[in-house]
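Review form for a predicted model. The reviewer records the input and the model, then writes brief findings.
Reviewer: anonymous (R2)
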Amino acid sequence: MNYSFSSKPTLTKCLMKGELTFNDHPTFRSMIDEALKTGVLSIQLDLTEVEYVDSAGLGMFLVANERADQEGWQFSISNPREKVKKMFHLAKLETIVKITDQ
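Model under review:
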């Protein structure tokens, strides 16, 4: 997994690329920490270029969402590809995490 940032005054978008698997846990945590250092209160993960998410990746989204609730910032996911969106639907992730197509 690779990532880059696109920031606005109130939102940091994390543009993710590749696959999100168990091995990406340290990188994912660093990405969230780095985004929070900007001082924004909203982080959106843009999955336009993410081809695959395994069950550990789904868990990372849940941990980030829980952390956001505990620390008082907003967490959302945008633009999942159809294959990734299907995984989200099977796991009912959309009932816990805000997922948009924008």
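Findings: Residues 12 and 43 are 5 Å apart (CA to CA).
Further findings: The chain has one domain: 2-100.
Recommendation: see findings above.
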